[in-house]
Design a protein that fits this description.
This protein is α+β, with helices and mostly antiparallel strands and 104 residues long. It has five helices and three strands. Helix content is 67%, strand content 13%.
Length: 104
């Protein structure tokens, strides 16, 4: 195989960032329910605030989420609709694999 293109390397970085249970849960939550602040995400996902902030930093750095400041609060949303598509397609594919494995 020839040297990976920059786009391929970037895709690997994005998928690697998403490949953590808390980060994926944040992306799923933001996709399915819309924007949320840290307090809401912490409560709904049952994650400590310091851990959640750490994961949100990674997601922002990977440009998967955007934080918008409203006074002292920061509300997070997905960077764009493509992120939601990746999340939903991945979950659907995983569910299909699980169903196929149970059917064997």
């Amino acid at each position: 195989m020839s040297e990976p293109s920059l786009a391929l390397e970037r895709a690997v970085d994005l998928l690697a960032c998403m490949a953590h249970p808390v980060r994926l849960a944040v992306l799923v939550r933001l996709h399915r329910k819309g924007p949320a602040n840290v307090g809401t995400l912490r409560e709904e996902l049952a994650v400590e605030q310091s851990a959640l902030s750490h994961h949100l930093r990674h997601l922002r750095a990977a440009r998967l989420v955007v934080g918008e400041r409203e006074g002292k609060r920061v509300t997070y949303r997905l960077q764009d609709e493509h992120v939601g598509c990746i999340v939903e397609d991945t979950l659907q594919h995983a569910a299909e694999l699980e169903s196929a494995e149970r059917g064997q």
